[in-house]
Amino acid sequence: MITEGSPLPGAYWPADTSQPVMETTIGGVLCAAAEAAPGRTGLVFARPGDRVRRCWTFAELLTESERAACALLARFDPGERIAVWAPNCPEWLLLRFGAALAGLTLVPVNPALRPRELLHVLADSRAAHREPPACPRARCSTIAA
After folding, report:
1. Alpha helices, DSSP H only, in 39-135?
2. Is the pLDDT of residue 66 over 50?
3. Which of 63, 71, 80, 83 could disulfide-link 127, Cβ–Cβ 3.0 to 4.6 Å?
4. This prediction's pTM
């Protein structure tokens, strides 16, 4: 019987060696997909009730992700951690790919966190801090410490 505070007796799952481990990143996977099938659909997005779906080919995903990578590198240094506090949307995925292409570590933050929880995650993750740029389209909320 496992009780609170007792160590787990078998918290180990043996490695699956039936397939080789790919020596790549998600950015590398995107580059390979864009090279192998540039015109194929790589992402389709629609919210329930949407009449029109947004679609990207692998080539378009790579182009947009490279733009994101350039924008990120204008603000952050490779190796830094950046936190993203946002709901799922296509731009989140483009940011994920962009961060990988830029050599940044993305720290996904649950958008349902309350301000105090968010501050804890940001401090614990050691995410780089930069003031957000002024953007009229951005939906920002003030977080009190």
Report:
1. 58-73, 90-102, 115-125
2. yes
3. 83
4. 0.73
